[in-house]
Amino acid sequence: MKDQLNRTIQLNKIPKRIISLVPSQTELLCDLGLESSIVGITKFCVHPNQLKKEKTIVGGTKDVHFNKIRALQPDLILCNKEENTLEMIQELETIAPVHISDICTIEDCLELIEMYGLMFSREKKANEISNQIQALHEDFKEFIKDKPTLKTAYFIWKKPWMVAAKETFIDEMMQLNKFENYFGHLKRYPEIELYEDKEETAELVLLSSEPFPFKEKHKEVLRNYFPKAKILVVDGEAFSWYGSRLIKAFDYFKSLYQGPLKTIVSNSR
User: Fold this and answer.
1) What angle do CA 217, 220, 225 make, to 5 degrees?
2) For site-directed labelling of 49, which of 39, 155, 194, 210 has its Cα 20 to 30 A away?
3) Which domains does the chain have, with CATH numbers?
């Protein structure tokens, strides 16, 4: 079969020993009923929460212990073009077949779910998850259709300041929410410079809870650069995790509009 980079993956049987190096894909495996087949995960694979106690942690998403992975004798290693490095993947391919995802859109996410359904003989459950995501997506598009567009900056890191720009799954989620990307003229996850003598004009600033753990205290720091913006700390998993996490994300997005964004949306009409 092919992965999302159109690479051919040679599998002689349904994989029974899986290593997942991508947190959202680990969660998807569990929701597909494959938790017992997972033998290795990253330290960032936090859902479901008991997994880190039960599975071997092989490192992070950018740096793994290859000796631990070899010892687990995996049938398949699951990676992602963005999360994992090329150097890692090249070494991992000497251990076991490597399936690489490449996710920028909801359509990419649905394609991956279908791939996993076929690869692991979980087609029925994969279809159920895909159908649920598509129904919730359509419902949210109806919910959002009359909401105003807000010029929005989405921060993922501090020192240096880094944002989510175009060609990212986060940008897809922003567009879905009618958050016009303030840094949409840039690509991927650029470092940016902010100056206190230059007033930025975004209407909304979102501080992601991951990968940098932005807290309420960081809002005041950004207010020096975005004095007129509404500044919120948001659930980074809702904006950046794909797979079955999307089922929970749409309700979270609604809660933003029904709570902290209610005033700014009313004022923007």
Assistant:
1) 140
2) 155
3) 18-135 (3.40.50.1980), 147-268 (3.40.50.1980)
Q: Give the dihedral of Cα atoms 51, 156, 25, 76; nearest 10 deg.
A: -90
Tokens representing 197 are: 């003598």
Tokens of residue 48, six digits: 């479901």
Token readout for 50 is 């008991």
pLDDT one-digit tens code per residue, 46-96: 999 999 999 999 999 999 999 999 999 999 999 999 999 999 999 999 999
The rounded distance, in Å, linking the Cα atoms of 107 and 90 is 27
Its pTM surpasses 0.85: yes
Written in H, E and C, the secondary structure of the chain is CECCCCCECCCCCCCCCEEECCHHHHHHHHHCCCHHHEEEECCCCCCCCCHHHHCEECECCCCECHHHHHHCCCCEEEEECCCCCHHHHHHHCCCCCEEEECCCCHHHHHHHHHHHHHHCCCHHHHHHHHHHHHHHHHHHHHHHCCCCCEEEEEEEECCCCEECCECCHHHHHHHHCCEEECCCCCECCCECCCCCCCCCCCCEEEEECCCCCCCCHHHHHHHCCCCCCEEEEECHHHHHCCHHHHHHHHHHHHHHHHCCCHHHHHHHC
The predicted structure's pLDDT at residue 268: 66
Percentage of the chain exceeding pLDDT 70: 99
